[in-house]
TrEMBL record:
InterPro entries: HNH, HNH_nuc. The keyword Hydrolase applies. It comes from the Bacteria. GO terms for molecular function: endonuclease activity; hydrolase activity; nucleic acid binding; zinc ion binding. This is Alpha/beta hydrolase. It comes from Polynucleobacter tropicus. Residues 25-65 form the HNH domain. PANTHER family: HNH DOMAIN-CONTAINING PROTEIN, TUDOR DOMAIN-CONTAINING PROTEIN. Keywords: Hydrolase. It holds the Pfam family HNH.
Amino acid sequence: MIGKIRQKLISQAPRVISNTQAIICPICDRSIPASQKDAHHLIPKSKGGRTTEFLHRICHRQIHALFTETELANQFNNATALQDHPEMQRFIQWVKTKPDAFYERVRKSTRIKN
């Protein structure tokens, strides 16, 4: 069963490259295969956010591994702000060398764990 948010996103027109139906990840600028598509709330739902955007699953997990919900709501509530963070820049440079369908487990930052 598909959740309400995912159903709504599927019904909306995705960001498209030329005439193909490839959705582009706003974090790493790579094409997102259907198996790796995750909906991310730009401002967390717990902080009143409603807007979502499709990201690679690995990019989405990395964001939540590095930042708290409060940080996401206050400072990192758009793709540009996320891309400008030094740790995200390191991650983006690394993930750009991987195939579009690549996925690896992401671990929480020690700063977030403590």
